[in-house]
Amino acid sequence: RADGILIPHHRQYLPVVRHFKQVCTSMRLVAMFLLFIFSYQSYGQDSAYQIKEKWQQAKATFQKRSNILVNLTKKISSSLVDKNQSNTLNDLAIDFNNYVDVLSLDSTSISTASTKNTKLLLSLLLVLSEIDNIQEVKSNPEFAIIQRQLEGCENRIKRAIQDYNEICAKFNRHDLVFLTDYQKRHSTILF
Questions:
Q1: What pLDDT is attached to residue 86?
Q2: Quick one: the chain helix, strand, coil %, rounded to 5?
Q3: What is the pLDDT of residues 147-188, one digit of tens each?
Q4: How far apart, in whole angstroms, are the C-alpha atoms of residue 151 and residue 155?
Q5: Residue 11 gets which letter from DSSP?
Q6: Interior CA angle at 31 toward 26 and 34, to 5°?
Q7: CA pseudo-torsion sign 140, 144, 149, 154
Q8: Helix (H, G, I), strand (E, B) or coil at 179
Q9: Contacts with 28 (C-beta within 8 Å, 6 or more apart), sequence order
């Protein structure tokens, strides 16, 4: 073209130019499609990574609590606390720790971990309610330290579970949500 006027000897190239434009348009569409596919695949990988990362954070807090509970049962073993309850708490803490350590992220494993967590908390409540009646243990400064560690750890667990559940909800993986006992009873309200 020269000033909007088609020069006659270039007319022979018009079909080639049109074909080239069509090929370029087709290539752009293919490139956009491939970009969409790869970004969608990356989204899936990103969601799995983020869920796993949040689970690792929750797992670390669970393991810390298990260590605190094992330490607690050692401290109260010589007191008047029922040995069966103390041993049960110790066994549940170790069992929960071992289970969470090798857990794979699937709905059955998460549900089992949630159930084990509930049993562990119930056992802990039984032991703590018994300790509450024993002045010798309550007045022990080491027990007070363990109790503060446990309280802080439970707060971190609550936050870690909340973060984990939020990332599961964000990526629409409600099957992986870690439900507490209260949430299980009221799950129809949640989702």
A1: 87
A2: 85, 0, 15
A3: 899 999 999 999 999 999 999 999 899 899 998 755 554 444
A4: 6
A5: G
A6: 125
A7: positive
A8: coil
A9: none
